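Structure tokens please, single chain.
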Amino acid sequence: MSDMSFDMYENITNMEQNITHYPTEATILAAVCACIFSVVGVVGNLVTTVALLMHPKLRGHVTTMFVLSLCVSDLLFCSINLPLTANRYIKQHWGLGPSLCQMFAFVFYGNEAVSLLSMVAITINRYTLIAYYDMYSQIYTTTKIWVQLLLIWLVSFGLMVPPLLGVWGQLGLDASTFSCTILPKDGKSPKKYLFVFGFALPCVVIIVSYSCIYWRVRQSKRKLEGRRCVCGKLSGQTAKEKEEDSRLTTLMLTIFLCFLACFLPLMIMNVADDGITYPWLHIIASILAWASSVINPLIYAATNRQYRAAYANLLKFCKNSTVGRRTTWGSRTMGHSSNSPHYAEKRNHMKDKPANL
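Here you go.
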């Protein structure tokens, strides 16, 4: 055997030894969960988007714009990443080419950043409403909201442009785990920096913001009696508005905590077990991360009355549309039925017509 052939054989042997062999049961579970989450996530986030846009009260709410950004991000993940992930685990290798692999990683990490930055925007919005209520309408104008949304998406996917172009790291296939991810290039990789600025820092901002919200709400409750007027209303917001905002803040906090509970295990496993010594734990952590894009519509429906009203409004609209179509179809055929009140007149009219010879 020549030296070149021996080196090629040695490289192939080393690659085979480095490949992570997931248990068959684990890959089947991952593929099934990816398929289920894909269908449920697409339906749930699409229904939520339509329901919020159709509900008059929520449609004009500032927080709804950021929630819609979150829904669109989850919708992209469920419709693009999860089906490709299911295919990867079914075949236990990536066979869809390098271009699609790069697109997968670009959308995956970009969407994760959009979700977190949308939550940051929601948290800051909640704090501004509670701490600076008198200035709230000036800070959150329609133009400024759209600028914030545009920045969220540009920054999130802009962070992925350097590895996409191969300037700083590269997007590609990790053969050892048959996953499309951020790979080092020339010994450099932005993965740690993206983790700090795209995940850890937003989480810190959200935690600090909610801590400030809790402190301001607690302080506000102590001064509540002193701020009441003779009419029984607060000087800034009415008691009902205050209660609705408090419920909405609780809802957004629940969404963040669930997001953290879903993604934190995967982050810990990637850092603590980089060599994938425990494949089952990596699979379970990945499934939890996928679930983060599915559970938000369930949280909306379970914890907030206004969001339940939006879902009910959409369901009522669909029912009325179905009944309307049936009524229209029935009215078109009614004239031809013997039960129609105009049936006798039409029949007599036909009798009066001369027969064609």
